[in-house]
């Protein structure tokens, strides 16, 4: 009897097997029920007034935001004029990040945004007064009224620890209104904070012992860097790179340079170096580049530019670690 029914049993078995196989295939092919498991969200849009703020925003809001850098190219941000399309981009963004008074054209475009959409990068930062150093040399600068930056020095991004404060402010504002992003943003923030702490440690360890503690600069954009790492700065011109120094000012800087045995005067690639070169020739100084990183560096990024600045200072100030 068993043999008699064996072919039938085998047939039934094959049929069941085929059914099972078909069922399995159908289940696998309908697997694209993944969207129920993976949380999808719409990215927020962010307008960053100029490069350093875009750099921070891209790091902290990675994977949750679309960052639009407004002041592109080599133009100084404080001279930047917005096109109608750029104004529209700012006013249609979910968030706008800026430093008050640094880029007036951007400030003007913020009037159409709500207060909770505007991120002030100076929040929580101890600001330095503009046109002031420990020598009190800046009062006689012939400043162009159109390029004053208010009472505070705006170049706060040149201290890596301030970059951490900017990052935290961006994170706090966006998470407050988009709690679903909190895990991603906080993870990004941790990584960014580590990179800035490492950079800060690089500066501290390499600038502990320097023969000259005054930075001679063509443009006094380095107050935050100088203050954090034990220097004062003495500039041919003040906060505004376009300001024309008087003959008396040039004579004063030359006198101080000799008194402190300075060896180097720093100038910027995007500012005419002729005055710095003339002073260097007169006093017997060498020249070197310090990048204020107001625009995207020609090579690398913010981190790279800061490390290049560090190398220049170590050499120019006679530092040994």
The first-level CATH class name of the largest domain:
Alpha Beta
Could you say which overall geometry the principal axes of the C-alpha atoms support?
globular
Beta-strand segment tally: 10
Q: What is the helical fraction, as a range of percent?
A: 40-55%
How would you characterize the largest beta sheet?
Answer: 4 strands, parallel
Number of helices: 10
- Domains counted in the coordinates: how many? 2
Neighbour order of strands in the largest sheet:
2-1-3-4
- Rg on CA atoms, Å: 29 Å
- Span of the ends, CA to CA: 96 Å
Looking at the overall shape, the CATH architecture of the largest domain is: 3-Layer(aba) Sandwich
H/E topology pattern = HEHEHEHEHHEEHEHEHEHE
Q: Would you tell me the structural class of the helices and strands?
A: alpha/beta
Give me the CATH fold name of the largest domain: Rossmann fold
Q: Name the CATH homologous superfamily of the largest domain.
A: Nitrogenase molybdenum iron protein domain
Low-confidence stretches: 1-39, 132-149
Mean pLDDT: 84
Beta-strand content bin: 5-15%
Describe this structure in words.
The longest helix is centred in the first third of the chain and has 28 residues, at 2-29. Strands 2-1-3-4 form a 4-stranded parallel β-sheet, sandwiched between helices. It has a 4-stranded parallel β-sheet with strand order 7-6-8-9, sandwiched between helices. The chain has helices spanning 2-29, 51-60, 84-91, 104-109, 160-177, 182-206, 223-228, 247-259, 274-283, 302-316, and strands at residues 44-48, 65-69, 95-98, 118-120, 209-210, 214-219, 232-237, 264-267, 286-289, 319-320. The termini are far apart. It has 2 domains: 44-201, 3-Layer(aba) Sandwich (Rossmann fold), CATH 3.40.50; 209-320, 3-Layer(aba) Sandwich (Rossmann fold). The chain is an alpha/beta fold and 321 residues long. The chain has 10 helices and 10 strands.
């Amino acid at each position: 009897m068993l043999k008699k029914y064996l072919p039938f049993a085998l047939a039934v078995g094959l049929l069941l097997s085929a059914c099972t196989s078909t069922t399995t295939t159908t289940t696998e092919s309908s697997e694209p029920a993944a969207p129920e498991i993976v949380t999808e969200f719409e990215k927020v849009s962010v307008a960053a007034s100029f490069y350093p703020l875009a750099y921070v925003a891209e790091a902290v809001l990675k994977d949750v935001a679309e960052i639009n850098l407004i002041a592109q190219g080599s133009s100084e941000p404080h001279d930047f004029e917005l096109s109608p399309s750029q104004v529209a981009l700012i006013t249609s963004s979910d968030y706008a990040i800026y430093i008050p008074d640094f880029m007036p054209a951007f400030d003007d475009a913020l009037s159409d945004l709500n207060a909770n959409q505007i991120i002030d990068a100076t929040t929580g930062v101890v600001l330095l007064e503009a046109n002031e150093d420990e020598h009190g040399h800046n009062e006689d600068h012939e400043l162009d009224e159109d390029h004053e930056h208010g009472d505070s020095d705006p170049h706060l991004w040149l201290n890596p620890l301030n970059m951490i404060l900017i990052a935290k402010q961006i994170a706090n504002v966006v998470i407050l209104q988009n709690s679903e992003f909190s895990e991603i943003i906080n993870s990004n923030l941790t990584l960014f904070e580590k990179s800035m702490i490492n950079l800060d440690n690089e500066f501290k360890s390499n600038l502990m012992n320097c023969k000259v503690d005054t930075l001679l600069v063509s443009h006094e954009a380095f107050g935050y860097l100088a203050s954090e790492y034990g220097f004062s700065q003495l500039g041919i011109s003040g906060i505004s790179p376009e300001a024309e120094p008087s003959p008396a000012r040039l004579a004063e800087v030359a006198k101080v340079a000799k008194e402190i045995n300075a060896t180097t005067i720093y100038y910027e690639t995007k500012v005419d170096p002729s005055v710095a070169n003339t002073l260097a020739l007169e006093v017997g100084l060498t020249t070197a580049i310090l990048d204020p990183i107001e625009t995207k560096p020609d090579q690398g990024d913010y981190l790279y530019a800061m490390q290049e600045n560090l190398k220049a200072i170590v050499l120019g100030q006679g530092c040994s670690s």
